[in-house]
Amino acid sequence: MLNTLSAGVLPFICLVIVFFAMAKKIDIFDAFLSGAKDGLKTLFGILPALVGLIAAITMFRTSGALEFLTKLLSPITKPLGIPGEIMPLALLRPVSGSGALAIVSDLLKTSGPDSFVGRVASVVMGSTETTFYTLAVYYGSVNIKNSRYTVPAALLADLTGLLVGTYVCYVFFNV
């Protein structure tokens, strides 16, 4: 029942839109073309930011800078109880969701999903955001050049997600 219901939702929504447009005497095809044109304008507006972001992520990972920063931050993270294996995730998550997902997948394969590292990685992945990607897409789509306090506030939220996520895992899983 659920599979047939979910398979019928999208066609039903499309039919409702078509009937609504016909009732309002709106030319559906012209409206579709106009929306597609606006969508392409948005795509071309944010594409340079996304290409730059992907290039920066690739250089960051392949240059060894990620490992260097992880080792550099270990004197701070060890006293806080943050597992060292989590730090590549914490550093890459604000920049790349897919890169962070690859790190989580690797951590779950090596440490196991029920390990402390696996649990912290899962909680941190769900508690943080791809800050720079989100800003590139949203601010790029409306041509905002000055992010002002957005980046520091968003990075502080990511740090909070890391710290509180780790603490919650300590509390709930009695480590």
Chain-wise SSE layout:
Elements: H1 2-23, H2 28-62, H3 65-80, H4 87-92, H5 97-111, H6 116-127, H7 131-141, H8 150-172
Describe the structure.
The protein has 175 residues and is mainly α. It has one domain (41-172). The protein has helices at 2-23, 28-62, 65-80, 87-92, 97-111, 116-127, 131-141, 150-172. Helix 2 packs antiparallel against helix 7, helix 5 (97-111) runs antiparallel to helix 6 and helix 6 (116-127) runs antiparallel to helix 8 (150-172). The two termini are 43 Å apart. The model has no long low-confidence stretch (mean pLDDT 87).
In brief:
This protein has 175 residues and is mainly α.
Key structural traits:
175 residues, 80% helix
| Shape annotation | extended
Total number of beta strands: 0
Q: Whole-Å distance between the termini?
A: 43 Å
Total of domains: 1
Structural class: mainly alpha
Helix content: over 70%
Main β sheet profile: none
Q: What is the element string, with H for helices and E for strands?
A: HHHHHHHH
- Determine the strand fraction and express it as a percent band: under 5%
Gyration radius (Cα, Å) is: 22 Å
